[in-house]
Write a structure and sequence with these properties.
Shape: globular
Low-confidence stretches: 225-231
Distance between the termini: 55 Å
Structural class: mainly alpha
Number of helices: 12
Order of helices and strands: HHHHHHHHHHHH
Largest sheet: none
Length: 266
């Protein structure tokens, strides 16, 4: 099977997973989240939530933070003259890891702003009304600034690890690492629902979304992972590309927020 056909099959698979979950979860989102909260494993949900970055003990939230720090350090090291030769084989792969995880974070926070879905504890408290993952939440109409529920930031930091799948050479490695990360991400989604901070769909739907994003980035911008970055448009071309994406995406989100405030809040 050629690379092009394999790419389309994988993308169609993850889109199908997203569509199936997106169609089925709205009917059970409220009940499943409530069930998980009522039958929560408190120590587990607390461990998965806590992070050293927030002044807590080490927890599940630190895995993604450590990953980000490591790949950024190695990326910049690979661009220095002293370490360039040693990282030559991994130069473009490190660029992919940095760009893909950064764009995923941009997408996550932008979608939070656009969807503005109220968190479960706000809905149960009666301060906000329930909305599905595909609807514009009441937070957008209530305040205009918010920390939306969809998608889950904790799941996003974990599923960012899946970018590693695309830089591994052997198929069994990609399958094994991919499965472990998906299981970990599902576990994080369950933990966040147990804590009543997120609806179960907030986490589960972002998993296939991340894989589709990584597939497109890898296929269209980082296909030749062995090609040195210096020959692909400059030593820092990945950061230039990332900056352009960030400017376009942030501008779009700000424009939507402006229109929303003007016509819905005004």
């Amino acid at each position: 099977m050629n690379a092009q056909k394999s790419f389309y099959i994988r993308v169609c698979f993850w889109i199908l997973v997203f569509v199936i979950l997106g169609v089925l979860l709205p009917a059970v989102d409220f009940s499943w989240t409530s069930f998980l909260h009522q039958n929560s494993w408190e120590s587990y949900s607390r461990f998965m939530e806590q992070s050293c970055a927030e002044g807590h003990a080490f927890g599940g939230g630190d895995i993604g933070n450590i990953f980000t720090i490591v790949i950024v350090l190695f990326y910049f090291a690979s661009r220095t003259k002293r370490w360039e030769q040693r990282f030559a084989e991994w130069s473009n792969r490190l660029g992919f890891l940095v760009v893909s995880s950064s764009i995923l974070a941009l997408a996550l926070h932008g979608i939070k702003v656009l969807v503005a879905r109220p968190r479960p504890y706000l809905v149960v408290a009666g301060t906000q009304s329930f909305s599905q993952w595909y609807q514009i939440g009441s937070l957008a109409l209530a305040k205009g600034h918010y920390s939306g529920s969809f998608p889950s930031g904790h799941v996003g930091s974990v599923i960012a690890l899946a970018s590693v799948v695309f830089v591994l050479e052997k198929r069994w490695q990609r399958v094994l690492v991919g499965c472990l990360i998906v299981v970990f991400s599902i576990g994080m989604a369950v933990a966040r629902s147990m804590a009543f901070k997120h609806w179960i769909s907030d986490g589960l739907l972002f998993i296939p979304f991340a894989f589709v994003l990584f597939e497109f980035l890898n296929h269209y911008f980082f296909r030749n992972n062995s090609e040195p970055s210096a020959t692909r448009g400059g030593r820092w071309w990945e950061l230039v590309f990332l900056l352009r994406v960030a400017v376009v995406w942030i501008s779009f989100v700000m424009a939507v927020v402006f229109v929303r405030k003007t016509f819905l809040l005004g």
